Amino acid sequence: MTEARVGWSFLYSKRWIGYFALLVVFAIACVYLGNWQFDRRAQARDEISRIDRNYGADPVPIAEALPHPTDFDIDEHKWLTVTLEGSYEDSAVLSRNRPGPDGVGADIIVPFRTTDGKVFFVDRGWVAASGTDIEDAFATLPQPPAGTVEVVTRLRASEPEVDGRSSAGRTVASINVPEIAEVTGVQGEVYSGAYGMLVSETPAAEHGVLPPKPERDEGPHLSYALQWYVFILIAAIGVAYAARQEYKNLNAGSDEVREMEEKSHARKRRRGPSDADVEDALLDA
């Protein structure tokens, strides 16, 4: 007697519905992570466009680039080269825990008062000062030139404050311009949306280590994004393979009996009717 054929009905079981639900959740997570990598690639490409557009551009006076001290647009102004004329103030701060060529150190941030009385903060480079020695580093910091100075800087956005970390003495956790203005106690109108990374100054003076030109590299985000979609395909193939294997296991008995019956009928058709079949036919007639 032929066994009852299960077919694909097992896919409606709770177990397999659970497998399909897990596959859907996994696919949604992979799509989210893939799109996140696409977004990061888009951000990297925007940064490359800003570098190409602004980094090597001719310097412009800061009053022309930023007519109002709060005017800073990251897409338009980041890496833009600007010139300032005025003098440095004697109230430097150190932005601690900054990466540099020799490990972790600090950036020297000095307020610069322009000839029209506004205050702009200049990052004069990195120094190897960290940990408990950071306060002692002020005695050996490179000093800015005295008197009237012409400075060329590249604009950078004011950094956000770091949660759980605040200023300590004359050190700050990030180059957050409003916080630095409060720590230094400078008076007057402050360029609050941006600070400048030193390029050159006249007359020249000793400064910290200046950063190299940023790399034009969008990173591996595209390959990472595609990998997440490949993971979806692999998972789907794995589920399909498991379903196929279970189908074979559940239907093996009925399939084997059916195959044997089909082979028996085929042999009878090839041999023709037997004597018993002929006798039965005559009796029926």
Automatic annotation (TrEMBL):
Residue spans of biased composition, Acidic residues class: 276-285
Bias kind Basic and acidic residues: ranges: 255-264
The organism of origin for this protein: Leucobacter aridicollis
Family: Belongs to the SURF1 family.
Keywords: Cell membrane, Membrane, Transmembrane, Transmembrane helix
Residue stretches spanning the membrane: 16-35, 222-243
Chain positions covered by the region annotation Disordered: 253-285
Membrane topology term: Multi-pass membrane protein
Protein name, entry field: SURF1-like protein
Compartments where located: Cell membrane; Membrane
One Gene Ontology cellular component: plasma membrane
InterPro entries noted in UniProt: Surf1/Shy1, Surf1/Surf4
Lineage: Bacteria, Bacillati, Actinomycetota, Actinomycetes, Micrococcales
Main location: membrane
